[in-house]
Design a protein that fits this description.
Length: about 200
């Protein structure tokens, strides 16, 4: 019998953004010690499909790949930090993604293509599920940071792991390119990129 597989659909920012978030992760370790997500590379989670049968890849993923290919790359901006509150007095601090009408429409489209029904708040986790005491120590260092960093996303990554594989880590499975034309903001137009940063 084949094992069940978990699939994680994510957007992976460029190396400069990964390094920036990595610095905030390591700075957090200095204040609260090690925590669960400190080694996780920066990413924006889109969908987590848990406990799927082996044919999921050849049916569902294959079906949506062409739709995703038709989407244009998207320009995103980190714009400061915010936090989520969880049950049992747990907190997650994240890099906030600025939401504009264009960005909102782009994420609405990817949700439609992946048939995601629940809400999606694009963000890059820095510190995940920490107790209130650690949050109270860290948040004063994040709350007034005026970090604004633009970056392009031109592909969706899919990683997998065995559902019941114990501590098995995520493994690369497929990368889907966003190849559609971006009529509003050409990807290689550096002048446009600079202008967008001003707003």
């Amino acid at each position: 019998m084949n094992s069940y597989i978990d699939y994680l659909f994510l957007l992976s920012p460029p190396q400069t953004i990964k390094e920036l978030i990595g610095k905030y992760k390591m700075a957090s370790v200095k204040h609260i010690g090690s925590y669960k997500s400190m080694g996780s590379p920066a990413h924006i989670s889109i969908m987590h499909a848990e406990r799927q049968k082996p044919f999921y890849a050849s049916t569902t993923i294959a079906k949506v790949e062409a739709r995703l290919n038709s989407m244009p790359p998207v320009l995103l901006h980190i714009d400061g930090f915010k936090y989520f509150t969880h049950v049992h007095d747990q907190y997650t601090i994240y890099a906030h993604i600025r939401i504009t009408p264009a960005v909102d429409a782009w994420f609405a489209l990817i949700k439609k293509h992946l048939e995601i029904k629940k809400g999606l708040i694009p963000h890059i986790t820095v510190v995940r599920n920490i107790p209130a005491s650690d949050f109270n120590t860290l948040w004063p260092h994040f709350r007034h940071k005026r970090v604004v960093e633009p970056f392009w996303i031109d592909e969706l990554k899919i990683v997998t792991r065995e559902t019941f594989g114990g501590m098995a880590g995520w493994q690369p499975f497929k990368t889907v390119q966003f190849k559609g034309a971006n009529l509003l903001l050409p990807k290689d137009d550096l002048t446009s990129r600079t202008q967008v940063k001003l707003f």
